[in-house]
Design a protein that fits this description.
Layout (H helix, E strand, L loop, with lengths): L2 E6 L3 H11 L4 E7 L7 H18 L2 E4 L5 H5 L9 H19 L4 E4 L9 H15 L2 E2 L8 H10 L11 H6 L3 H14 L1
Parallel strand pairs: 1-2, 1-4, 2-3, 4-5
Helix pairs in contact: 1-2, 1-6, 4-5
């Protein structure tokens, strides 16, 4: 029986390398887009569109859940959290694990594991906790060695490659903030 895997994906570029590796296995892969942290809504839609393109090209099912909820991350300290990234990982991995269990999947993982800018050990710990809670396997795959390869694949596929992780705070702290905001204003005007 083929293993059924739910891959949480934050965007197309980060999904490129993990999907390349996962498609080598004899598994049924479904991609899951749940990213309430991504701000503003135009950015959330832009990343979704790129992931839709990639999953269609690869012939994979994509499940979209939720929308942009930036206020949660802007007010993360008011929620009694000590680390906004931890809160973000918990939110997305918890929802992914719940969805995997609901769908009768065997395992789940996240494209967060490809980025050298994310806390791999924390992501793994949180993923393992949710795996235990939902009686699933958490595939703590270290895809970081393929990060640049995945970014090059995304460039070759013509995918938009963002310059911040997604939340409102990371946008404010980005070295590319002004350019990002101009681009997003242009997108909003087109809609």
């Amino acid at each position: 029986m083929r293993k059924k895997i739910l891959l949480h994906a934050c965007c197309g570029p980060c999904a490129e390398y993990p999907l390349q590796e996962l498609l080598k296995s004899d598994a049924d892969i479904t991609v899951y887009y749940f990213n309430p942290n991504i701000h503003p809504i135009e950015e959330w839609k832009r990343r979704l569109a790129q992931l839709e393109y990639l999953t269609a090209r690869l012939g994979l099912e994509l499940i979209v859940d939720g929308t942009s909820e930036p206020d949660i991350w802007i007010d993360w300290e008011k929620q009694g959290k000590t680390n906004r990234c931890s809160m973000c990982y918990e939110s997305r991995l918890g929802k992914t694990a719940a969805k995997a269990a609901e769908l009768g999947m065997d395992a789940f993982l996240s494209t967060l594991q490809v980025s050298p800018y994310q806390d791999f050990d924390l992501i793994t710990s949180i993923g393992n906790n949710y795996a235990e809670k939902y009686s699933l396997e958490y595939m703590a795959s270290d895809f970081r060695s393929g990060f640049r390869q995945g970014q090059n694949m995304a460039r070759e596929d013509g995918l938009y490659r963002q310059k911040y992780c997604g939340c409102a705070i990371s946008l404010e702290n980005s070295d590319f903030r002004e350019k990002i905001l101009r681009d997003l204003e242009g997108l909003a005007a087109q809609q």
